[in-house]
Amino acid sequence: MDNNSTDSSVQLIKDFISKNKNLNIQLLHELKHGSCAARNRGAKAAKGKIIVNTDPDCVADKGWLKDIASAFDTPPASPGGDGGVVAVAGNIYGFSPESLIEKFLSIFTLRGIGEHRIFDSYNLFTGGFATANLSVRKDVFERIDGFDENINIFGEDHDLCARIYKAGYKIKTVPNAVIYHIHRGDLRGLAKQSINFGIAHSILLKKHFPKGLFIELPRVTYINEKFGVPLWINLNSLDKKLFFIFLAGCFIPTILILVPFYFLYHAFDIKRRAETLDMPLPLYEGLIMSGLLFIKSFFITIGRIYGSFRKRVICI
Prior knowledge:
- Helix content is 44%, strand content 17%.
- It is an alpha/beta fold.
- Strands 1, 2, 3, 4, 5 and 6 form a six-stranded mixed β-sheet that branches. Strands 8-7-9-10 form a four-stranded mixed β-sheet.
- The radius of gyration is 21 Å and the shape is globular.
């Protein structure tokens, strides 16, 4: 799908098609800018029963499509029961991360679900999956009008999932269907992505929860979907925790002694997480990543505040 590309991508695809004429590959063009318009154009042209999504900065594992196809071997799509499974979300790993930021994002961004589960609802915290590895039955995709082209690149995937659930269907996670994501490798890319994630939070809150209170605390999440106004407060992010530590330090200065120990705690936690991904880290890299975690959380908060003004919600 060419969405007004200005580099050599189109020619590369044309060359690949000419060299692999035995493969049924089409190069389509969508003039309306945006991933949603491009994906909808591709889905409309598709002749198969399943719409398989991934991103241009992803590499598919061998057998990825086969694993997805086998996951759809369920009764015909209908609301309720196992037959209500109409979408499959696969796992996402970092693609050969080398730089410190790439390693960090491999741990904390676009992580897939590492177990087989079936989801039937979306609540901002669970039930949403990235288009980097998300497949949907075409008939249902068309029934719910595909991707919302009013959403600009971030949040459109969770929005699609939310509408799948509202239509009475379910999404299955399949950890063995793997995509490897090529993450951003610099601070500017990390900051920009984090801001967009924050803006997406306010968009999703406005669209799917015009009434609802969502509060994230350490190890506790409170949800009240009958609350009068859309309100999402995340007090579990690192930037908020440090803010309250420094606020308390204004009255009790000795509390500020906790700050370096708190970063050290996160360094050990990051090191542990990396080891579960077969990515051993020296402690000093864990310390640097704890700083990156603060940067990521800070810019997400900036995006949430900006999105709150745009969408007239409270999302901080």
